[in-house]
Amino acid sequence: MSRKKDKSPAAPAPKAVSVAAHPRARASVRRIRAWTALAAFGIVLMLSLSASVPGQEAVLRAVVAGLIGNLAGWACALAVWRQLVLAEVRVAEDARRERMRARAESAAAESAA
Q: Residue 91 domain-assigned?
């Protein structure tokens, strides 16, 4: 059996707006995930040790809290960055519309003159 390759020109895929494709969002989400994981780990370890929990149990609790903190930080950062990216898209679209309106007005003024 021979496999035939589709030689028809493919339409370019539309560019989707995503948090992962945003230059600042990706780094910010990673940073927030790390800080929330470290904060949760440290807080739970400190509280467990101050409550006289044995060392291994305290570390295990802190590791679990760090994992949960990582996921919670990721979810919160993603929710915030989704709104920020959408706001940036709206601002860019408004600016594009304003430029188009200005061009149309200048073309109308030129044709009237």
A: yes
Please classify residue 69 by burial: count the beta carbons closer than 10 Å to its beta carbon, then call 0-12 exposed, 13-18 middle and 19+ buried: buried
Domain membership flag for residue 47: yes
pLDDT digit string, tens, across residues 7-22: 656 656 657 778 888 8
Q: How does 82-103 read in b/e, with b if 16+ C-beta sit within 10 Å?
A: eeebeeeeeeeeeeeeeeeeee
Q: What is the rounded distance in angstroms from the CA atom of residue 53 to the CA atom of residue 59?
A: 10
Range of the domain at 65: 23-112
Cα 52 from Cα 57, distance rounded (Å): 10
Q: What is the pTM of this model?
A: 0.71
Tally of domains in the chain: 1
